[in-house]
Amino acid sequence: MAKSSADTPLMQQHRAIKQKYPDAVLLFRVGDFYETFGEDAIIASRVLGITLTKRNNGAAASSELAGFPHHALDTYLHKLVKAGHRVAVCDQLEDPKTVKGIVKRGVTEMVTPGVATNDKLLEQGSNNFLAAVHFTETDCGVAFLDISTGEFLIAEGNTEYIDNLLQGLKPAEVIFQRQYQKTFKESHGNRFYTYTMESWIFDEAFATESLLKHFQTHTLKGFGVEHLSKGLVAAGAILYYLKETEHPNIQHISSLQRIEQEDFLWMDRFTIRNLELIGTGTEQGHHLLKVMDNTVSPMGARLLRRWMIFPLKNQQKIHERLNTVEYLLLHTEARKQLIQAIKSCGDLERLVSKIPSKKINPREVLQLARGLEQVNNIKDFCLTATDQLLKDAGMAMNPCSDLVERITQSLTDNPPVAANKGEVFRAGIHAELDTLRNIATGGKEYLINIQQREAEKTGISSLKISFNNVFGYYLEVTNSHKNKVPADWIRKQTLANAERYITPELKEYEEKITGAEDKILAIELELYDQLLQSLQPHIAAIQINAQLLAQIDCLTCFAENALQYQYKKPEVHEGHALDLKDSRHPVIERNLPPGENYIANDILLDPASQQIIILTGPNMSGKSAILRQTALITLMAHMGSFVPASSAKIPLTDKIFTRVGASDNLSGGESTFMVEMNETASIINNISTRSLVLLDEIGRGTSTYDGISIAWSIVEYLHASKHAPKTLFATHYHELNELEEKLPRVKNFHVTNKEVGNKIIFLRKLAAGGSTHSFGIHVAKMAGMPPELIQRANEILAQLEEKHVDESATENISKKERLEKNIKEISGPKMQLSIFDAHSQTFDDIRKMLNDIDINRLTPVEALMKLNEIKGLLK
C-alpha cells in the first residue's frame, strides 16, 4: 500500500502491522468491526461475499475497504481459511474508553489451515495435522502436529515412505525448506496446501534446543526419538512455525511419539487408494472407514482412522485387541453402558487442548468435569473386567476427582458460553460477589423501600424515585407537595410542575449499584482465570484418559459391528496360509439393494501348494470384489477387528500390495500403462515372504500381445521368487490359464455364470478351473451399444473362434501368428453384399422395415403380422 501524506494514524498503524504479515489476510479490528484494506479487501469481498467499497483519505490516494461485525469472526474466519488463505487477526490491545488518541493494536492469532483451533474449522472425526518435511541428500524427516489435540508424531525414511505417511494422515498444511519446492512437487504432487520457510530453521542444533526448551527436559531419550535426527529437525520447525503464527500457549503438546515403519503393516499410497479405505474420490462414495466407523466419540473416530492407515504387525497386540472385542461381545449389558458413558464424555481431547490458550468457555469446562465423572465409571468397569487390555486401561485412567469437585462446586448448573456474560459461578463461592449480586438484583426492591419509607415520613403520597444520566437516582415531588420536603434533601432540578431532589442515602446506594455490574464481571473473570489455572496441571492426565477412551471406543465399535454384521473372530497365525471360508466384501455387502444377499466365497492361498490364483471370469462378474475383500479382511484382522467370513485363518502379513483399476496421471505426463507399470514395478521390487499381492488386469493398457507377455512373465517371476508371496491375479487373458499346467503352485479359478437364452447371469461364485469366455460383447450390449454394432462384433467373434479351432487342430504356429492370420482373414460385414446379389434390394427393404418398428409399442398380434409380411418378401 503506497504511503500517502494524507494517511491517517489508523492507516499508518495498519501499514506497520501488515508489513510484518505480508502473505496473510489482515483482519484489522476497528471498534465493533474487523476491516480489511487494499488487496486483503479484494480477497475478503470475493471469498466472503461482502461489499467492497473505497476509502477516500481526502487526497488522491484511496484504498479498497471491506469489513464485517466482530461477532461474525468465527463464520468468516472459517471461510477464508477453507479457501486456502492465511489469516492474521489483529485486535485492540487496550480499552478505547481509557485511551486518548489511537488504540494500541497487535496480531493476537495467525490462522492457517494447519494451525486451526476453531471448532468450525475442524472436523470432529478427523485430525487436523500440520506437517513439516525436512529434506536431506539421502532420506527425509517428517513431523505431524494436531494443535487441536496435542498429538505430535515424528518419523523418517525414504521419499516413498514419507509420501505414504502424508497420504495416510492427510495434513491440512505442509511446511518445508524453500529451496526444495521442485523436489516436493515431484515427490508429492499438488495434493497439499504448502508453506515454505528459510533453510536455517531446519537446523539440527536449533531444532533440538527448541524441543528441549518446550518439553522442559535435558534430553529427548524419554520419548524414544533421539535416533530420529531428521524427524526431530522437522518437529523443531513445527515449534518455530507455531511461534511465528502467534501460538505461544501450547502446554498441551506434552509428548512426542515416533511412527516406526517396522511396527505396522505396510501399504503404499496406491493400495490405500485402490482398496478405498478412507475415501473413494467421489463425495457420496462408500469406503471401508464409512462402513466400520460406528464409534460414539470424536476421539474414537479419529483413532479408528489411524488404526486403518497403520494396522498392527505385532501378533501379541493383535490378539489383545481381538480378545477384548470378544470379551465386549459376550458382555452385552456392560458394553451398552460403556458405549453410553463414552458418548457422554464428549471430545475430552480437544476440550483440554483449549485450556492453555484460555479458549475454553465455562460451558465446556463443565462438560470436561462431566466427562471426567464418566471416566470414573469407565475406570470402575475396566478394573473389574477379566480382560487384560481393559484392566490395563482402567489402571492408567485418572478421573481427577478433586478437579471435578472444584468445577462442579464452583460453576452454575447451566453456565454461559462466554465468561463475560455473567452468572458463571454459584452463590457462596465469593462473599463480595454475593453482596454485589444482591445489590444488582435487589436494587429495585431497595429503591421501592426507600420510596415507601420517605413517603410515609413526609406525607408526600405522590413521591417517586427515578433515574437519569445527568445526576443518577433522584426523588421527584410535585409542586403541590414541595412544602413538605425535609431540610436535608438537596434540590437538583426544577421543572414546570415538580422539583427533583437527592438524599445522602440515595447517593450512597447509587454508587454501590452503578459499580456493582462492573465489579461482578471483574470478580467473575478473575475467578474463572483462577479456575483455568487450576486445570493446567491436569492436562496430561486428561489427555491420557482421552487416548484410553478412544481405544475402548474403537474396540466396542468392533464388537457392535461383529454383532450387527455377523463378523467372526479371525485366527491370526505365524504360518503362511490364508484360508477364508464364506468371505464377503465388507463395503459392498452393506450397500446391496434391500433383500439381496452378498454371495460369499472361500479363498485359499498357501505358498506351499496354491501360492498364485489366476482368476478369470466374465467382465462385471465380481473378480475385483474378490481381490479387494481378501485384502480388506486381512487388513481388518490386523486392526484387531472381527471379519466378514464364517471362519478366517490369516497369516501375519507385513505388506499388502494392490494394482487394481486403471488411473491415468495425465497431468504428470504418464499414460495408464505407464502408471500401471510403475505401480507393478514397486510391488515386484518390495515383496517379502509375508506379503499379500493383488493384481487386477495387468497389461490391459498396451497391445494384447504385449499385455499377455508381461502378465505371463509377472506370474512366472512371482512363482520363482524366493519370497513366494501369496498372489491373487485377476485377468481377462484366458491364455494365462495354461500356466497351471506349467507351474505347480499356480491354480486356475473362475467366477461362474449361467446363460439363460441369450442372457448372461453372473453367479459371483468362485469355482476351480479357468474361464473360456469374457462376455465383453454382452457387457457392451448392457451398456447400450447400437444393435448393429453388437451384431457385427458377434460375427467377428464367431469367425475368430471358428478359425482358432480349425488351425489349432492342423497348424503348429504361435498364438500371436495365428491371431494375426485370423484377423487378416476376417470377412467384411455381411451387410456389404455383392452388387450382383439378387436379394440385395429385398434385404435393404427388410432392414428399413425393421428399423422403423417401435418394438416397445408392438403388440404380439402386430408382431406376427409383421413377421408374415417379411416372410412374404423373401419368397
From TrEMBL:
- Return the InterPro entries for the record: DNA_mismatch_repair_MutS, DNA_mismatch_repair_MutS-lik_N, DNA_mismatch_repair_MutS/MSH, DNA_mismatch_repair_MutS_C, DNA_mismatch_repair_MutS_clamp, DNA_mismatch_repair_MutS_core, DNA_mismatch_repair_MutS_N, DNA_mismatch_repair_MutS_sf
Q: Name one GO molecular function term.
A: damaged DNA binding
Q: Does the keyword Endoplasmic reticulum apply?
A: no
Highest taxon of the lineage: Bacteria
In its keyword annotation, does this UniProt entry include tRNA processing?
no
Q: Which residues form the signal peptide?
A: none
What are the GO cellular component annotations?
cytosol
Pfam entry (one): MutS_I
Name the positions where ATP binds.
G617, P618, N619, M620, S621, G622, K623, S624
Cited NCBIfam families: mutS1 (TIGR01070), PRK05399.1 (NF003810)
Give the family from UniProt: Belongs to the DNA mismatch repair MutS family.
Q: What is this protein called?
A: DNA mismatch repair protein MutS
Organism the protein comes from: Sediminibacterium sp. KACHI17
Q: Which lineage ranks, top first, belong to the organism behind this chain?
A: Bacteria, Pseudomonadati, Bacteroidota, Chitinophagia, Chitinophagales
